[in-house]
Amino acid sequence: MKKKLKESLSLLLILIIAGCSGIVKYKIEHPPEICIGDVQNIKINKFSVSGNLNLNQKNNSEIVGEIVNFAKSTVTQQVGDKEIKNYYYSNMINKFANNGFYNIVENSENYGAEINGSIYYTVQDNYQVTKNKKKENDKNGKEIIVISKTYTLVRQTGVTINIRVADRNGNVIGASQVESNSSNQVTESTLNAARDNIECWESLVHDALYNTMTSLYRKVVPYYSYQHLKMKTGGSKKIKVANKKAQKGKWKAALKVWNSIEKSGNEKNRTAALYNIGIYNEVYDHLDKAIEIFKKLNLITNSSKYDKDIRRIVDRKEEEKKLEKEPKQHK
Q: Measuring CA to CA, which residue among 58, 56, 123, 55 is closest to residue 84?
């Protein structure tokens, strides 16, 4: 992965003003869970599909015989599984084709790694009957209580995606799993009406599968996220003003104020200013310097409350080592 240019990093940062909260937000890159290495071409295969349907179907007296009911369910599931396979494959191709890190090849032997996987889904129907009481007058004007029923049908879907990445010799590079859920609920005056109006199970499975795409993509491709860091004020108006400058991207001006207060302010303000200097170094990718500052703050305050800041930066350093092994983005 291309090494960040230290002094021009501010051009890559996305900073926002967050009122008086003193929060800065910036964009950082993460390595994927499965490191494929310096591979240019990836082949994506269609995933196998299997599932368990437990639908609230019409009972046997409403359909001509149990065998007919079973055959209908089997055909429905077979057709649904085929649609699910094609649906997920199409979405995967679209998602990975524009990744900018790998070339996606189809039906070709010219690949360095291939993605295989399986989809397992479950669909479960449950319903509840609610009795409703309502006062009405009969034809003689006498008040009576009328009891009616409503049927609430809930259809819950869960999907589990298992993926495996292998090189062209079949050696497994890595494997992982992604899960997601979706559901639909309707309330009607009859159970048949609820069955007719509930969202079809294939659509719910598609929704759950679609929600897995980003997570699956991040398993094998570097991705970005936003880091939120809250600066300290120490109760100083000067630090607050400097923090607002940093939020607007005027880091050099803010740093000048923090440095002056860190050298001459009272203990509370000096600690706050030094913490913000540590944030500045973290944002600008001077990670060793940031760790040094947060360790110094632990010593100054005779505490370990800055350990979480140190761990955050140590984790980021480990991620940057992994990113060095990833391919360069070419689009």
A: 123
